[in-house]
Amino acid sequence: MYEEIIESPVLWIVVTVGLYLFAAQLKKRWPRNPLFVPLLFAIVGVIIILMVLDIPLATYSTGGDFLRFFITPATVCLGVKLEKNFDYLARNYKAILIGIFSGVIFHTTLIYIFSLIFGFGPEMIGTLIPKTSTTAIALGVSESLGGIVPMTVALVIFTGILGAVLGEHVFRIFGINDPVAQGIAMGTSSHAMGTTVAIQQGDVQGAMSGLAEVMTGVTIVAIAPLTLMLTEMLVG
Predict the structure, then answer these.
(1) What is the DSSP letter of 30?
(2) Which InterPro entries does this chain map to (predicted)?
(3) Considering 9, 89, 103, 129, which has the largest number of Cβ atoms within 10 A of its Cβ?
């Protein structure tokens, strides 16, 4: 009976969604506590449950992976928020595009600076370059650049969680109150996870973050051949 319950896909769907909703309630009560960011809370909660009960990841995946089905529809839904807030895009498109492209270029430049300082090889550079894009894009870019794909996946998740947890605090510290700037920053730096938090901040932030998430991925793909050439020149 115990094994049948543990292996039930419904159980792990309920556990995952339940942890997320529970964290959302905690976040409403203690909005400034970074530990109660729903995505972080749910991820850590599931990991702890699996470790304590010694449950294989494959068992969790029977239900947990079902949630992946909703990733594409949820991403498409971001277009609805963008359409409703299109006037913000029309009025600020130059600043928005400059913000997205400069964010990608700055991130890429930092990776090369650190590679020179710490002696990273081409494989590690290829692993790090796509970490601010969504997982689907990051996998292809990492592979094309000769990176370590599993490590890229881990870095993408870590980057998203870091942005989701610290984003609001960074805005508060530096006095960034403009909703367009907040959304672009979240989407450019922490892809889908940042967009989830941006949606909670407001419709404008969610729409701009969704746009930035897509444009960041496109930009990283576009400059991938250039980064490959640059890597060969510097450390090849």
Answers:
(1) S
(2) CidB/LrgB (IPR007300)
(3) 129
Query: Which residue ranges make up each domain of the chain?
Result: 1-77, 85-236
Give the CB-side neighbour count of residue 53, counting CA atoms within 13 A.
15
Q: How many CB atoms lie within 10 A of CB 165?
A: 19
C-alpha to C-alpha distances, 14 to 60, 66, 117, 210, 215, nearest whole angstrom: 11, 11, 46, 27, 33
Q: Which helix (H) or strand (E) holds 33?
A: none
pLDDT at 48: 92
CA distance 191 to 163: 9
| Ranges of residues in the chain whose predicted pLDDT is under 70 | 1-3, 68-86, 88, 235-236
The token pair at 170 is: 């960074």
In angstroms, the CA 79 to CA 210 distance is 8
**The predicted structure's pLDDT at residue 49:** 92
Instruction: Look up tokens 């450019």; give the residue.
Output: 188
* Tokens found for residue 133: 């894009």
Identity of the residue numbered 22: F
